[in-house]
């Protein structure tokens, strides 16, 4: 793996140098203090972790937890680390509109990053979807809170990791008897989220994917499901 990691670190060094050029140019133009600069990426790379390459068919932190560094003089305090749960695709769009003083469309559900940085709002958890690639339509869903990560794999075994004691995600606790109550709580939360956003995996066509759950589980296709709140969008009627 050494040559691969070496090239990866070389790419990061190259990117760092180019970001430095951009920041220097902003200062030369006299607009550095008026510009929001964000350094981030859309995904990570396994780069040898878990013996894997690339970014597909897994939901490890190597791929999902990516850098986000922002510079906004006079707005975002310098040198501060924000522990908030951030969803880049949702939150950066709203933040850019806010920086340009443009009202966000009503369909936008992201956070203006100024709010979590200032401690005005935060999320208890985050969700992720994977819809597969041209090489294979393998779908996954993930729910992560401050400590635990649950991954729903419709056609394989599910995953549960304690990120506090196992940050490398090496020990799958999904079959641990001591974790079944927590697992069910995470599954219920994920199922409600999938229904709310009209996830295709919550369609009756995919009930076979949830048949591996205990029959007493609210998300099991043969279990009686308590209806969501009246203002929660539903995919199906039961």
Low-confidence stretches: 226-238
Distance from N terminus to C terminus (CA atoms, Å) equals 52 Å
Radius of gyration: 21 Å
- Total DSSP helices: 6
Give, in spatial order, the strands making up the sheet with the most strands: 3-4-5-6
Tell me the helix content. Answer: 25-40%
Describe the main β-sheet briefly: 4 strands, antiparallel
Q: Class by helix and strand content?
A: alpha+beta
Average pLDDT over all residues? 86
Structural features:
238 residues; alpha+beta; four-stranded antiparallel beta sheet; two-stranded antiparallel sheet
What is the gist of this entry?
The protein has helices at residues 2-28, 61-64, 88-99, 114-117, 180-196, 207-210, and strands at 37-40, 68-71, 126-130, 140-144, 148-152, 159-162.
């Amino acid at each position: 793996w050494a040559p691969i990691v070496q090239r990866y670190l070389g790419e990061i060094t190259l990117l760092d140098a180019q970001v430095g050029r951009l920041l220097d140019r902003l200062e030369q133009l006299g607009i550095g203090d008026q510009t929001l600069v964000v350094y981030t990426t859309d995904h990570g790379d396994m780069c040898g972790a878990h013996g894997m390459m690339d970014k597909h068919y897994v939901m490890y932190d190597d791929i999902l937890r990516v850098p986000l560094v922002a510079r906004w003089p006079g707005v975002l305090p310098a040198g501060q680390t924000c522990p908030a749960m951030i969803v880049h695709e949702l939150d950066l769009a709203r933040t850019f509109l806010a920086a340009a003083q443009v009202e966000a469309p009503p369909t936008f559900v992201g956070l203006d990053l100024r709010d979590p940085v200032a401690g005005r709002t935060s999320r208890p958890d985050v969700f992720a979807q994977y819809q597969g690639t041209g090489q294979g339509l393998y779908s996954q869903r993930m729910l992560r809170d401050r400590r635990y990560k649950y991954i729903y794999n419709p056609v394989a075994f599910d995953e549960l990791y304690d990120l506090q004691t196992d940050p490398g995600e090496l020990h799958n606790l999904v079959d641990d008897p001591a974790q079944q109550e927590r697992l069910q709580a995470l599954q219920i939360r994920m199922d409600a989220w999938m229904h709310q956003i009209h996830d295709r995996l919550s369609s009756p066509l995919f009930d076979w994917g949830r048949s591996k759950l205990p029959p007493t589980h609210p998300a099991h296709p043969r279990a009686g499901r308590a209806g969501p709140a009246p203002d929660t969008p539903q995919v199906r009627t039961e």
